[in-house]
Amino acid sequence: MVVSGTDTDARMRVLVYSDKAETREQVRQAIGRRPAADVPRVEIVECATAPMVLRKLEETDAAERIDVAIFDGEAAPTGGMGLCRQVKDEIFNCPPVLVLVARRDDAWLANWSRAEKVVARPIDPVVLADALAELMRQRLAVLSG
Asked: Per residue in 92-129, pLDDT tens?
């Protein structure tokens, strides 16, 4: 979490992974600058490739650390569900991950990936913002001790 000055300046870095710029933009617009009044503002970090996601999640500098991640389950060539399982196995203190799935029936796969939240497409801005805000609250609780 990035804090600059006062608590009202607090920001949470949210990584959005999809190989499609359109999907990343849909997510950005759905969550807005602050998904709920009781969570910090969001700073979006966009990634179009799995290697970049891994680099960003391995960042140790507190100002660059990712607080929550949103993965596109349909991304190619590396899908968000497989990538989620990989980061849960490989990244120490991996942030919570929300996976976007194409169909509600894919939720079991997202559970296999160990994602903390699953949101089905088409993206409903209210559902996505609520799910992200819940993950942000959980992350804040962990970070504050």
From this structure: 989 999 999 988 777 787 778 999 999 999 999 999 99
Residue 69's Cβ-side half-sphere holds a number of Cα atoms within 13 Å equal to 31
CA 97 to chain CA centroid, Å, is 5
| Cα 59 to Cα 55: distance, rounded to the nearest angstrom | 7
- Written as six digits, the tokens of 113 are 């990936």
Which residue has tokens 């349909």? 74
The whole-angstrom separation of Cα 16 and Cα 91 is 17
CA count, 13 A, side-chain hemisphere, 12: 29
Q: Which residue has the tokens 């190989």?
A: 19
pTM: 0.92
Burial 106-141 (b: 16+ CB within 10 A, else e): bbebbeebebbbbbbbeeeeeebbbbbbbbbeebbe
Task: Report the DSSP pairing between strands 117-120 and 97-101.
Answer: parallel
